[in-house]
Design brief:
Rossmann fold, 4-stranded parallel β-sheet
Length: 324
């Protein structure tokens, strides 16, 4: 792979992702791959689509990888003082899980509109839940203030190298299960998942493509890559709080510029329809962000080409496709 352009943060080294895989061993699950056919709903394109069911991960999402990886990097003194984060939901559950494993006080800030089920999961792992703000950015400002005031270790959901390395273990796992994957479709919130996965993919299989998926109501990386600089969105209109970062961070943006091949945009309704398909046809309960990668295919925003083997990541669990 060519050297990174001058001034850009480098990709997360493969050695760091492999080290993260060792740190999280025994703390996360090996999740299955699923060929979705036969289905009543046709999958567009001429490729072969497989789903990675990370919605079956402990805590219900890939976020358990990053939080467990970060926890393994802390000193005993840092762990003892306690940990804190802000989240749209899934990262908060994962950090609550990390706090439960370490047996330390854990505080999770979430937006006021957080999914009640995700809020219950956070509290179920023994964390203190604080509802604050309309979107993640507002929750995060409050969490950072408390972290500084109380001397707590802050777990950034997407701009921490240790967290990103943990997310990158997912790509290593997928390629170990199915080395023939040509294209990875990955939902984007703040950009930590796609930064970790793209770093791993380009190190292990440089020919593979990494395609990001964002909501039209929060096109954070799409707008930044188009502008050639980090863009702070003037407003967020998506209802999917787990994909509602108002701006990405430098490390995620720089990695995306080097290793993400494209970003496509989908609507909230596209995600709702995909979540419904996952539940009604496959018995897979995904939240809207978890359905985003499949939504990009079903909505025709990414069309697999003849012979192309595509992995659509079902990254988070939820009941969004269940019921009327």
């Amino acid at each position: 792979m060519p050297d990174a352009p001058t001034g850009l943060s480098p990709l997360i080294p493969l050695a760091d992702i492999q080290a993260a895989r060792r740190r999280i061993a025994g703390k996360v699950r090996l999740t299955p791959m699923l060929a979705p056919g036969p289905m009543k709903t046709p999958i567009p394109g001429d490729g072969r689509v497989v789903l990675k069911l990370e919605c079956l991960q402990v805590t219900g999402s890939f976020k358990a990888r990053g939080a467990s990886s970060k926890l393994g990097l802390l000193t005993a003194a840092q762990v003892k003082r306690g940990i804190i984060t802000a989240s749209g939901g899934n990262h908060g559950i994962a950090v609550a899980y990390a706090g439960w494993m370490a047996g330390v006080p854990t505080t999770i800030y979430v937006p006021e509109g957080v999914s009640p089920l995700k809020a219950e999961k956070i509290k179920g792992w023994g964390a203190r839940l604080v509802l604050h703000g309309r979107h993640w950015n507002e929750s995060n400002e409050a969490a950072l203030k408390e972290a500084g005031r109380e001397g707590l270790t802050y777990f950034h959901p997407f701009a921490d190298a240790g967290v990103i390395a943990g997310q990158g273990t997912l790509a290593l796992e997928i390629l170990g299960q199915d080395p023939a994957i040509d294209t990875f479709l990955v939902a984007i919130g703040g950009g930590g998942l796609i930064a970790g996965m793209a770093s791993a993919v380009k190190a292990v299989k440089p020919s593979a493509r990494v395609i990001g998926v964002e909501p039209v109501g929060a096109p954070t990386l799409h707008a930044s890559l188009k502008a050639g600089k980090i863009v702070t969105l003037p407003a967020i209109t998506t209802s999917v709080l787990t994909m509602a970062a108002q701006a990405t961070e430098r490390i995620n943006f720089d990695i995306a510029r080097q290793a993400v091949d494209d970003v496509v945009l989908i609507t909230d309704d596209d995600m709702r329809e995909a979540a419904k398909v996952l539940w009604m046809e496959l018995g897979v309960a995904a939240d809207l962000s978890g359905a985003a990668a499949l939504a990009a295919i079903l909505a025709g925003k990414y069309l697999p080409q003849q012979g192309e083997r595509v992995c659509a990541l079902v990254c988070g669990a939820g009941a969004d496709g269940v019921g009327p």
